[in-house]
Amino acid sequence: MLQNRRAREHFGRFFSQWFGYEQSLVRATVIPEDVRTKLRAESDALIERVVFDRKGPWTDIFRATESFIDADIARYYGDVSVPPEGPATWVSYGPNSERRGIIGHGAFLNAGTKFTDTSPTQRGIMVRTKLLCSPPKSIPPDLQVNLDQPPPSGSKCKLPGYKILLTQPSCAGCHAGMDPIGYGLERYDIGGKFRTTEPAGLTCPIDGKGTFLSPDGSSAPFSGPAELSDALVATGALDHCLSTRIFEYTQGRSKTGSDEESIRQTEKLVSGRSGSLLDVISAIVATPSFTLRTALPEKL
Ligand code: HEC
């Protein structure tokens, strides 16, 4: 059963919904369709490889140092070795690359975008909410700002506006826990292309330095997907969040307080036996709800 195509497709869909690109990539029409198709295939291939073929720790989804791309996508990314022309193949990022795992994929980096350029706020919310199940406090109802635009700064560059939010105590209380995660991913545009300047031009450089504020209150500087992935794995919170999302996927509803014990049971399987998800998947595919389920609850 586990090796059959249907189980693989189901779990591919589970992860693509959890990470958000199932929903976001189809809407990202600023990226050419053939590129989006290949970005999707890149992420699907990583998940299938880690979960079903390598049967290693599931957190390798965040730590993989190779990616399944063809020469077109390597050139599109701009910071990855270009493989020979032809079908996609596994390409190693090399020791000096800041890319690693799913966070270095265009499909993931596209999720959570709101404008035609990236939003550090939205990316920070995505990491906190989706990956750590630790959403930041919601927006104050009396806040009088234009949320449809990046914060203004008086400069033509985008990032200074976001940085002003951190200097104002009434804003920093929330924004300091989200935006600096996004700063550390700013060198990757809404399709995952590497860049060192904002779209406004060379006078708006991006240093790509961010800070990860962990749900336990500790903070760590980082730069790029590889260091962020290390910081996320180090929190230990990914297992609990994955278990929560699996629970919600199989039950088709958001968890309530009384579900915590079932989630812990899944978490025991997730973090046991070298972190492979196969035990968890065996338990799930044996339940009738698995065969019926097609979506995570909408709010995720
Ligand atoms: C209680 C938490 C909280 C406080 C305090 C707060 N914000 Fe926010 N802010 C948020 C959240 C959450 C979002 C994302 C909202 C969304 O996209 O639905 C957000 C989004 C924004 C955005 C849009 C940014 C983007 O890229 O999506 C701007 C601009 C903004 N806030 C400005 C401010 C300013 C200015 C202050 C201080 C006067 C402030 N905020 C205080 C939580 C907060």
Fold and architecture overview:
The chain has 300 residues and is mainly alpha-helical. It folds into two domains: 1-111 and 236-300, no CATH class; 117-137 and 146-226, no CATH class. It is built from 15 helices and four strands. The protein has helices spanning 5-19, 21-27, 33-53, 60-63, 71-77, 106-110, 120-131, 159-167, 169-175, 179-183, 224-235, 237-251, 260-271, 278-285, 288-292, and strands at residues 66-69, 89-92, 209-213, 219-223. Heme C (HEC) binds at residues 114, 119, 121-122, 125, 136-140, 143, 145, 147, 150-151, 165, 168, 170-171, 173-175.
Number of strands: 4
Task: Give the rounded overall mean pLDDT.
Answer: 89
Order of SSEs: HHHHEHEHHHHHEEHHHHH
Count of spatially separate domains: 2
Q: CA-to-CA gap between the ends?
A: 28 Å
Largest sheet: 2 strands, antiparallel
- Approximate shape: globular
The portion of residues forming beta strands comes to 5-15%
The percent range for helix content is 40-55%
Q: Compute the gyration radius: what is it? A: 19 Å
Class computed from helices, strands and strand pairing? mainly alpha
Strands of the biggest beta sheet: in what spatial order? 1-2
Small-molecule components bound: heme C
Q: What is the number of helical segments per DSSP (H or I, 4+ residues)? A: 15
Unreliable stretches covering 5 or more consecutive residues? none
Keywords summarizing the entry:
single chain, 300 residues, mainly alpha, 2 domains, two-stranded antiparallel sheet, 4 strands, 48% helix, globular, binds heme C
